[in-house]
Amino acid sequence: MELEDIQSIILRDRPTPYFGTVVAIKINNAEVGRQILANVLPDVTGSKEWHKDTQATLSIVMTYEGLQALGVPQSSLDSFPDSFKAGMANRANKLRDADVNAPENWVAPFGDKGDIHVCATVIADTKEKWQAKFDELKSNMKPYIDYDTPENGNIEILLEHDFGSDNNVKNVFGYRDGISNPEIKGSGIQTPPSNMDEAIAAGEFVLGYEGEAGTVPPMPQPEVLGKNGSFMVLRAYNSHVAAFNKFLKDNSDSDEEAELLGAKMWGRWRSGAPLVLSPDHDDEDLGDDPSRNNDFGYKDDPYGKKCPFGAHARRMNPRDSKDFILSDVRIHRIVRRSVGFGEVLPADVTEEDGKERGLFFIGINAHAMETVEYLQSQWINDGNFMSLGEEKDPMIGLHHGDKDSAADTFTVPTDPIRKRYHGIETFNTLYGGEYLFIPSLSALKWISELS
């Protein structure tokens, strides 16, 4: 693989701890937009020897409307997938984004207006490195912004949002995040061992390479625009941690029982220890050990008595669960680069404190739009694939808190009979999202030189 040409966000994991900012930009002047790309291109981080880079990293991604705004020729625009052209808001029916998650409830600048053109993300392992890199990005954009009348500027800053996590790298619910990602053939980047996870063909994640079927899928044209790029799905969630904590307490008789129920819903304990390897109690040493915390399968848990079939982790990566064809699981894997924002809310807090906390889900795949639409419609908001009927993912599914609804139920297989928990709420509410293209460094240069 041409690692030096592939943006690091595709192949390289985020640092631990991490500090960063995402900036959403609207381009009102194509020539200026291309000039800014040329200015920041030397700072965009490739994947070769990224682990030796002690500085912060910069990633640049763009929407279909962004490619239009930058002056990409129509012949090239026509070569992009239809789902990408439509945008996330217009694919709500495919994603099952309804009710509170429907696009009409999203927060600006997200939505179907196509205002977001380019997103820039700075991320680093220290606050100092992050701030220095972010200041450099702002200095490149500042001359082109009209702060008094933003719409009159050559570019507009529509969104500027910080994120980060300390050394525990836990989400705002208090559970370790970002443990399981696929290994990509030819990348030279090895993931922690797993007893069932073999490396997946590069073409499933990076354009211009063979996929699992042994063929090179179509990509945007010309080749310099498409090759070594990928697609990204960004979904922004507000997390209702106090409601989750209250649900655990209302459905258990002790703190220990509440912790177990939370682990059953996530599929892992707070430390990151998987239920399959530690079904009865948390094991911090296991959770902290990257050589062990992802090294498991589900074939020895065929009835879900250790990790329920409906647990979030098992839904999103069924691994070797009974009745699953591993080749099908492999083509639905996605690189997750999700980041959280806001403070972790302690487990004993059951009332919201009014502070903002949530998650930017970032999924990357050479056909990310179709992959996430499949995951959303089949694995998250349906239970048939796990023989669970109408049950949905307890953590990121769309729920209504209806105690009489099968869709708002979570089943835990146990002896002597299974337990069913009713009235699941939507614990993560979608407030926006975008389908994005991740150009290679060569593609960024090509776009910047258009005239």
TrEMBL record:
The keyword Iron applies. It comes from Psychrobacter frigidicola. Residues 277-299 are annotated as: Disordered. Its cofactor is heme b. GO terms for cellular component: cytosol. SUPFAM superfamilies: Dimeric alpha+beta barrel (SSF54909). Residues 23-146 form the DyP dimeric alpha+beta barrel domain. It comes from the Bacteria. Keywords: Iron, Metal-binding, Oxidoreductase, Peroxidase. This is Peroxidase. Residues 289-299 have a biased composition (Basic and acidic residues). One of its GO terms (molecular function) is heme binding.
